[in-house]
């Protein structure tokens, strides 16, 4: 090859290289408002275009990309980026990554400037400068080779900690809410939390579960609710308790005044075993309709004070109060005192029974024995009372006279 031809080739090569820009150049992001939303930026490259002329829209070199998929992260204005140009063509800029840096604002515009335009020189109003690399906020520490951090400019970050004994994954937002997954399980630290589940929800807890609420709790269930408890169940309420079923069908209120139960319809109670009720105060039952008491065995009513049963209007049989014994005797006894049966009408021997006849006979004999002096006075009166009506022999126990008046 002659010297002339070689010189021509060198000249062409120099001319070609003179119009091409290969390699990486330091730059910083100037604009990110890509009209096509492709993650493109415009950058200032001081060595090539000066400190005021931006490049055209530079395509990103993404680690992963595809139709509707990939990694999309656009750097903030002022971020230091590595700039390249496709085939060395200055009109086809590419940004292939970013670099750490937080120098002072006076460095902006110098050759290969490392300043990030718009980056704050301090954090939270303190004298602390913006760190070179992203830091973990809880606790505040820089990343190490075994700790991977992805952090945004506002403070949202993801931490992958592979350090032995401290393995975990953390997701943080800039306000301090975070999720921590470690060998101990899942920790959620939230200022407020809301869960929206579009489908079914199933939870299985093999161990114990504990829920502590500092405020009130509201739970709404649109369908039925079933709870099965294999062991004991304890409900402790420090304030009032109100239970309401089917609006007003059943309402139970427990407050400082006691317990109030309101049943809007029929009430049926079924007890398979014994039933014991202890009331420290008075008991009052008001029944608008009838009242029936049926016992398979005996019925015992004991009172420390007087017992009074009052009947209102009689039924069609003119019975206002009836006591019937299907078999055996009917006994009405007083241990100390006098039993009185009276009224505005006559008293039937069927009601009085033999016990009343014996009672009056014994009373008359006792009066004669205790007060023999007065016997001549009230003896004839009693004989006159007995002679007013005919004697009716009811049984072998004695005689009962028919009362003309109560």
Automatic annotation (TrEMBL):
Origin superkingdom: Bacteria
InterPro entries: Gp5/Vgr_OB (IPR006531), Vgr_OB-fold_dom_sf (IPR037026)
Positions with biased composition (Basic and acidic residues): 129-140
Domain Gp5/Type VI secretion system Vgr protein OB-fold: 25-100
Coiled coil: none
Region (Disordered): 103-143
The name this protein goes by in its record: Gp5/Type VI secretion system Vgr protein OB-fold domain-containing protein
Native source organism of the sequence: Micromonospora pattaloongensis
